[in-house]
What does this fold into?
Amino acid sequence: MEAQKLERYRKALLSLRERVGGEVNHVVESIQEDVHVPNDISKAPVHMADWAVESVDADMEVLNTARGIFDEVSAALERITSGTFGKCESCGAAISEERLKAIPYTPHCLRCAEAGAAGEAEEAE
It folds into this structure.
């Protein structure tokens, strides 16, 4: 891939990682606000789920999704550094420009991504 394109993807990924990192921080703060431990409870450590309210479950789903995207973006940045960005990790084929524009952190070409999704669906059944 051309150096100019790689630099554009690198900048886009850095921006995305910053936004997603901000979302992670925001959700963590929201969870902390939602979880109120009464003052008269002992100082014994407790798990957040012991005091969680319904909204915490939804926040945890958002947090898990955001952290997953953050990790995928970080991995894509590492692929740029290592020179493997834009190549499918499964089959080694080039990932199409259209796919990279839509999901710049994708590690798989469309064919392998679809095959992986189909395999996951079969396992779920």
Notes: The chain is about 65% helix and 0% strand. Residues 8 and 89 are 21 Å apart (CA to CA). The first helix runs from residue 3 to 34.
